[in-house]
Amino acid sequence: MDHFESVTSVVGKPSRPDNWQKEYSAAIRDPGELARILGLPAEVVAQASVAVGQFPLRVPQSYLARMSPGDLDDPLLRQVLPLDLEERVVPGFTLDAVGDAESRVAPGLLAKYHGRALLISTGQCAVHCRYCFRRYYPYDDEPRSQDDWNDAFSQIEKDTGLSEVILSGGDPLTLGDARLETVVDRLARIDHITRLRIHSRLPIVLPSRCTPRLLQMMTETRLKVVVVVHANHARELVADCADALRQMVSAGLMVLNQTVLLRGVNDSAEALIALSERLIDLGVQPYYLHQLDRVAGTAHFEVPEQRGREIMHEVRSRLPGYAVPQYVREQAGAPYKLPIV
């Protein structure tokens, strides 16, 4: 058993409900409960209670169990803890930093990149990351019923230049199996679509979602399925999370990881090297290191690009090339992620 497998939070292991939906529903949503479980000071509750008015708290118990009680600098806690800093108005930080609105070509469908289209499959997430680039996205304007998706699928059918569809959200794996299978089957019937990319944080924060039925659905469709997970720190990749990643890799899926460079979470060469090495050991390919999207309420997470370059220079000097993610930023209207070199 290696170092990571032996790590267990003193909070204890999360309860194992009968199915992932129960664990999803049991997520911590109250700042007072979060503070009580982790032994956080009262002033944290006061700050969090203000910030959740703009963007609610949500933390699955599996993820909570990997945090160190009483440690306000815990890199996992910092990703989900609401702070009054979110209320600051900072020039350059906007509601739609990545240009989602201007890319919307049909309800629920974004077209940003050549050959690819992105479906906003749901507005639901298993965890509310405080740096979320879609924390202000108008999910209420997007499709809900099956019929509401007809325009988006018609657009995909007509655009024969598309070969790949990206399921995003929210988090597409919060959809139940039956609804997710309906989406996948409908895409599989479109001849010019050959690849399906699923962007999800659930294998990291709610690993019980990686059920045999889900793996079967992703491996038996005619589409080539690529799963892009989102881990920011090596301490996330333990216990049930590590098991879920191994299961996806063993099933034959291509599994990539994207990370956001976050102040106080992973803004050091040591943290990013440990993350990449852990991912590689689990069979997951480091894919992107994102410069923070400049969304209102997230400025306290920003690491200056020059500092990011310095960190990545050291990462490249200490890791084999296959373990080094691409350092990129997204610019509204740009046809691809812009490398930061």
SSE order in H/E notation?
HHHHHEEEHEHEHHEHEHEHEE
The CATH topology annotation of the largest domain reads as TIM Barrel
SS class: alpha/beta
The outline comes out as globular
How many domain units?
2
Strand content: 5-15%
CATH architecture of the largest domain: Alpha-Beta Barrel
Number of helices: 12
Number of strands: 10
Sheet with the most strands: spatial strand order: 1-2-3-4-5-6-7-8-9-10
Amount of helix:
25-40%
Largest sheet: 10 strands, mixed
Mean pLDDT: 93
Distance, first to last CA = 38 Å
CATH class of the largest domain, named: Alpha Beta
Radius of gyration: 19 Å
CATH superfamily of the largest domain: Aldolase class I
Which residue ranges are poorly predicted, with pLDDT under 50 across at least 5 consecutive positions?
Answer: 1-18
In brief, what are we looking at here?
This protein is of the alpha/beta class. It has 12 helices and 10 strands. Strand 6 (224-230), helix 10 (239-250) and strand 7 form a beta-alpha-beta unit.
Q: Secondary structure elements and their pairing?
A:
Blueprint: H1 20-25, H2 31-38, H3 42-51, H4 61-64, H5 75-80, E1 104-106, E2 109-113, E3 116-120, H6 150-158, E4 164-168, H7 177-188, E5 195-200, H8 202-205, H9 212-220, E6 224-230, H10 239-250, E7 254-260, H11 269-281, E8 285-290, H12 305-318, E9 326-329, E10 338-339
Parallel strand pairs: 3-4, 4-5, 5-6, 6-7, 7-8, 8-9
Antiparallel strand pairs: 1-2, 2-3, 9-10
Helix pairs in contact: 11-12
